[in-house]
Amino acid sequence: MLLAIENTSKKAAFFQKKKLLPYLLVSPYLVFVGVFVLFPVFFCFFLTFHKWNIIAPMKFIGTANYSRLFHDRLFWKAIGNTLKFLLLHIPLQLIVSLFLAYLLNHAIKAISFFRASFFMPVIVSGVVVTILWQQLLGFDSGLINRMLVGLGGHKSGWLVDPDIAIYSIAVMATWKNVGLYVILFLVGLQTVPPQYYEAAKMEGASKWQQFYHITLPMINPTVFMVVILSTIGGFSLFIEPYIMTGGGPLNTTLSAVLYIYKQAFQYYNMGYSATLGFFYAIMIMTVVVLQKKFIEKEV
Q: In this structure, is residue 246 part of a structural domain?
């Protein structure tokens, strides 16, 4: 036992003398990044210049996949559907989560219960939540339509009407994720010094003026985080349309990620799917960078 400890100490001293110990300590992480991050990215970029269906050997086709991408109307329709989703999802996510966090920041009865209740959908499986909402929004047997008919109203095609299906999914996704952003906003609100509000009250500021001139500027980093996370999450829309509509009706809920998935695992166009994914990742990164610059400029 002592001999083993002595040998280990000698090895550590050797690496320390050669200034290799820091590299030795971070080597597991470097291996992880190389195998699970760098290699997939470079392999994806390599695939963009090839035609491959997993079974047959790869065939080099140059930039044909990129040319196909820019002429693929269905892909650009999927991009448009995703942007429609984001136009409702991000503002709704921001407003609802901030409103709930503002309420929970005050001393109310059973506050722990409400905090846990709002966060509960976040930890439930996305598939389970999606199936639940699919039952709620069903046209014939959905609970919401049955309630509307019971109140004397008419059924609505929440998931079968091409005009509103993507927005129905946006509402469902907001309900699923709002608890996470409530917690983030709640943390941000609790960091605002109460002295600011006391000074504002002495100056005769209203509740709205306090919120607009004190609360919002102080939680701006949290707002930025919520916007960025909501944007990335919205661009990653997949489970909801995959389970609830399959991309229908008339491809109006076909998200970009769902289309990439279909190209890879339904049509086995691995090279083209990699091209779509690579282009889509650059697009998301560009949007996030522009959002960051815009929000920092507003600050």
A: yes
* 3 state SS for 200-253: HHHCCCCHHHHHHHHHHHHCHHHHHHHHHHHHHHHHCCCHHHHHHCCCCCCCCC
CA distance 57 to 23: 38
Would you state the pLDDT for residue 19?
67
- Considering the domain architecture, whether residues 198 and 54 belong to the same structural domain is answered as no
Segments forming the whole domain that contains residue 33: 15-65
Residue 294 and residue 160 in one domain:
yes
Question: Which residue has better confidence, 48 or 111?
Answer: 48
Q: How many domains is the chain partitioned into structurally?
A: 2
Instruction: Tell me the longest C-alpha to C-alpha distance in the chain.
Output: 85
Average pLDDT on 206-223 reads 86
* 113 and 181 co-located in one domain: yes
Say which residue the tokens 């709640």 belong to. Answer: 186
Whether residue 46 contacts residue 260, with contact meaning beta carbons closer than 8 Å, is answered with no
Q: Are residues 129 and 226 in the same domain?
A: yes
Beta bridge partners of 50: 60
Asked whether residue 216 falls in the same domain as residue 157, the answer is yes
Question: Length of the chain, please?
Answer: 299
Report how far apart the first and last C-alpha atoms of the chain are (Å, whole number).
61
Ramachandran region of residue 294, left (φ > 0), alpha (ψ -120 to 50) or beta? alpha
The answer to whether the pTM exceeds 0.90 is: no
Q: Which percentage of the chain shows pLDDT scores above 90?
A: 41
99-110 pLDDT, tens digit each: 988 888 876 777
DSSP codes of every residue in 257-284: HHHHHHHHHTS--HHHHHHHHHHHHHHH
pLDDT tens-place string over residues 49-101? 999 988 889 999 999 999 999 999 999 999 999 999 999 999 999 999 999 88
Helix (H) or strand (E) holding 60: strand 59-60
